[in-house]
Design goal:
single chain; alpha/beta; 7 helices; 7 strands; about 35% helix; globular
C-alpha cells in the first residue's frame, strides 16, 4: 500500500496487474482494454500507462485518469457493453475484472457471490472481445468451478488460475487468466464479420 502511494498508483491492486502482464504479456501500446468494476482505478492506470486505449465502468464513481474513458454504469444493463466497445472504437483485446463482492467472512458465500460477478464480466467479454483476445477476473480460492469453468474453456484456448506475488499470502484471492478467445455467437466482432 505504501509503495502504491509512493509510486502514484491508486491501489495496491495495480501491482497484481503488472505481475499478470509480465507473465502473460496482456498489455501493449494501442491495445483496446475494458476495465470492469474499475474504481478506484489502479488497473486502468496500469493499462493506460502501457499505452492501451482504456474504457472503464463501475457502479461507484471514479476520479478521472488521463487516457481512460470512464462510465458510471451498471454492467448488468443491456446497453453497457456496447457503450464500452463504442468508446474503444472496436472490439477489445483484453477484458479485465478485479470485481469482488463485499466479503461476509463466510468463505463459501463470498466465493459464490464473487463467481456471480465473474459470470457478469464473462458475459461482457464474450460480447466485446475480438478473436484471440484475453480475459482476466478475480476469484476466491476454489477458482472457477464446474459449469462456469467449462464455459470459459469452451470460449478460450488457454485457461489458468494464478496467484500473483503482490496478492497477500494469507489472501484467498486468485486470478483467472483466459487467452485465445474463440469468437462465439454472442461476440459482436463475430456478428459483424471480424474486427472493426
Amino acid at each position: 500500500v505504501h509503495a502504491a502511494r509512493m509510486e502514484g498508483w491508486r491501489s495496491r491492486a495495480a501491482y497484481k496487474l503488472i505481475e499478470l502482464d509480465k507473465k502473460f504479456r496482456l498489455l501493449r501500446k494501442g491495445a483496446r482494454v475494458l476495465d470492469l468494476g474499475s474504481a478506484p482505478g489502479g488497473w486502468s492506470q496500469v493499462a493506460a500507462k502501457a499505452g492501451a486505449i482504456v474504457a472503464a465502468a463501475d457502479v461507484l464513481e471514479m476520479e478521472p485518469i488521463p487516457g481512460v474513458t470512464f462510465f458510471h454504469a451498471d454492467l448488468t444493463d443491456d446497453g453497457t457493453p456496447a457503450l464500452l466497445e463504442d468508446a474503444l472504437g472496436g472490439p477489445a483485446d483484453l477484458v479485465m475484472s478485479d470485481m469482488a463482492a463485499p466479503t461476509t467472512g463466510h468463505r463459501e458465500t463470498d466465493h459464490i457471490r464473487t463467481l456471480a460477478l465473474v459470470e457478469i464480466a464473462l458475459e461482457v467479454a464474450e460480447e466485446s472481445l475480438k478473436p484471440g483476445g484475453a480475459f482476466i477476473a478475480k476469484l476466491f480460492q476454489g477458482g472457477a468451478t464446474g459449469e462456469l469453468l467449462a464455459r470459459i474453456k469452451k470460449s478460450f484456448t488457454t485457461v489458468k488460475h494464478v496467484k500473483p506475488p503482490a496478492s497477500r499470502s494469507d489472501s484467498v484471492e486468485l486470478y483467472l487468466v483466459a487467452t485465445g478467445f474463440k469468437a462465439t455467437g454472442k461476440s459482436r466482432a463475430n456478428r459483424s464479420g471480424g474486427s472493426i
